[in-house]
Amino acid sequence: LTFKKTYSPLSSDEIIAKEKTNMDDKRFQHCVRVSETSRKLAKLNNYDEDKAALAGFVHDYAKQVPVEEYRKVIKEQDFDKDLLNWNRAIWHGIVGTYFIERDLKIRDAEILTAVRRHTTGDIVMTTLDKIVFMADFIEPGRDFPGVEEARKITYANLDEGVGYQLAHTLAFLVEKRNKIYPRTLEAYNVWSTKL
Ligand code: GDP
Ligand code: FE
Ligand code: FE
Ligand code: FE
Fold it and tell me: If you measure from the C-alpha of residue 57 to the centroid of ligand 4, how many angstroms do you get, rounded to a whole number?
């Protein structure tokens, strides 16, 4: 694993080492697989493979940051205070970019936006946003009913993959009676539905 360009003053080895100490091994291996899957989706969609591989690698950098640290950052930094009503499932993308900028010194707006949107999706999504969003969902370690269909659809058409994931995730959240983050619902309306 190595990144030709890190979009950071830190080297590829330094980024990898920092990420390794910020999460358990299971999560780290998921990030490696998301990186590889992002590279593959980038190639298929004529996007910069190295940039996609880095974005995929860092997407869950902040997934295991302690809850109290998140609450402090949301209160002290310029974040919507409504985020305090949510949890790490929502925070690690939207607020996670704060830790990526702080610790990994990555300031590239496209990479940070892709991380920010990787859990909920969004109304507007760039090619990189879609690549990371889908790589997270279909990486080879994922195993859920529908994952094979998700892979098939996504490799054939990235946008249709996004629509599939948003419908699948919404159905799963509703089934568990989880609270729906408004952006998840807005993204579903844009990418998954017709009138
Ligand atoms: P992961 O970080 O690799 O596990 O994957 P994601 O970042 O895509 O998702 C993290 C968790 O957030 C998953 O369990 C999703 O089901 C959950 N999630 C996504 N959207 C919403 C939402 O609108 N509301 C809630 N409560 N959870 C959500
Ligand atoms: Fe995530
Ligand atoms: Fe995701
Ligand atoms: Fe992930």
Answer: 9
